[in-house]
Amino acid sequence: MSWEALRPMAATMLVVGVLWALRARGRYDVILNTSSGQVQAYSSPDREFVRQVVSALNEAIVFRG
């Protein structure tokens, strides 16, 4: 195939890649390790809120002893 034949496909892939990158958002998870394995306890796009949840869980574990 020549470059002329590939140009429309390359342009389409570039546009799709840029749109996908712009829409991509981080997802933050709280993973708990239990005796039966790992459990995804919570998931959110809000990094700060997940950080607060993890901090509260850690404080509760320390308080419990």
Please describe what this structure looks like:
This protein has 65 residues and is of the alpha+beta class. The chain has a domain at 24-65. 60% of the residues lie in helices and 23% in strands. The chain has a two-stranded antiparallel sheet with strand order 1-2. β1 (28-34) and β2 (37-44) form a beta hairpin. It is elongated, with a radius of gyration of 22 Å.
Give a quick account of the main beta sheet: strands, pairing sense, barrel closure. 2 strands, antiparallel
What's the shape?
elongated
Report the total helices: 2
* Distance from first to last alpha carbon: 68 Å
Helical amount among residues, as a percent range?
A: 55-70%
Number of strands: 2
Class of secondary structure makeup: alpha+beta
Mean pLDDT: 86
What is this entry, summarized?
This protein is an alpha+beta fold. Helices cover 60% and strands 23% of the residues. Strands 1-2 form a two-stranded antiparallel ribbon.
Sum up the structure in keywords:
65 residues, 2 helices, 23% strand, elongated, 60% helix
Helix-strand layout with pairing:
Elements: H1 3-23, E1 28-34, E2 37-44, H2 47-64
Antiparallel strand pairs: 1-2
